[in-house]
Amino acid sequence: DVHTLLDQFGSVRDVVCSSVEEMSLCPGLGEKKVRRLWEAFRKPFSSLASKKRKRDRVMEAMKRQKEQEEEAETEEKREDCERDVAANDGGGGNNSEEEDNGDEVKKKET
């Protein structure tokens, strides 16, 4: 079909600018195919595909932003927890472990 059109019209520009009647003179091109080609040449570039790509980009950006916010919130909670542990620990190590070790020693002595 492409070869037929180019042989008949000489260039893509001339094919695109041709009328339905001119295209229908090409051997092997039926009425339905000619109509679809002519409509495709005249139809503005599809904004539907462009809108879908834009929507996909926006959704991806929103997803990344949400992930970043969740990561920041998780990091903030971790830092709060570390501050609480440090404040309750008094900076002297793990007292509960020392107490457990002391109890074991006392039990062994008796």
TrEMBL record:
GO biological process: mitotic recombination; UV-damage excision repair
Protein name: DisA/LigA helix-hairpin-helix motif domain-containing protein
Gene Ontology terms: cellular component: ERCC4-ERCC1 complex; nucleotide-excision repair factor 1 complex
Superkingdom as given in the UniProt entry: Eukaryota
Basic and acidic residues bias spans: 57-67, 75-86
Species, as recorded: Ditylum brightwellii
Molecular function terms, GO-annotated: damaged DNA binding; single-stranded DNA binding
Cross-referenced InterPro entries: ERCC1/RAD10/SWI10, RuvA_2-like
Region (Disordered): 48-110
